[in-house]
Description:
- The protein is mainly alpha-helical.
- The chain has 2 domains: 1-83; 85-121.
- Helix content is 64%, strand content 6%.
- Strands 1-2 form a two-stranded antiparallel sheet. Strands 3-4 form a two-stranded antiparallel sheet.
- The longest helix has 35 residues, at 86-120.
- It is flat.
- The N and C termini lie far apart (78 Å).
Amino acid sequence: MGHNTENLSIFRGLIKFKSNVQKIWGVLIWLSIVTTIEVALGIIKPEFLKTTFLRMKILNWIFLILTLVKAYYIAWDFMHIRDERDSLKGSIVLPLIFLIPYLAFILLLEADYIYDIMSAGFVSWNF
């Protein structure tokens, strides 16, 4: 029984491995590189990345994007979602596509409200 080479590749077939062990090490190295970049940026905090874009620092956007990249590869390769049928992939991925932006919207809306309350001071209602 031969190995399916499609399952032994990462980056949509750009890098191919000869065994599952090599593939696991390849994904681990990729995740380690992304984590190292995150930690280095967290320690250094370059000034040019402290400018804001859409009311959030560019550095925070980079952390958010790199975290989503790591979550994608962990789920896709280590949890073997890549090997599942399209219907199961859809049932896992599609709710997350709607749920994560919805939860982020709620979080940002509430955080903006709390910020406004904290910056304007406490206002008590006189009933």
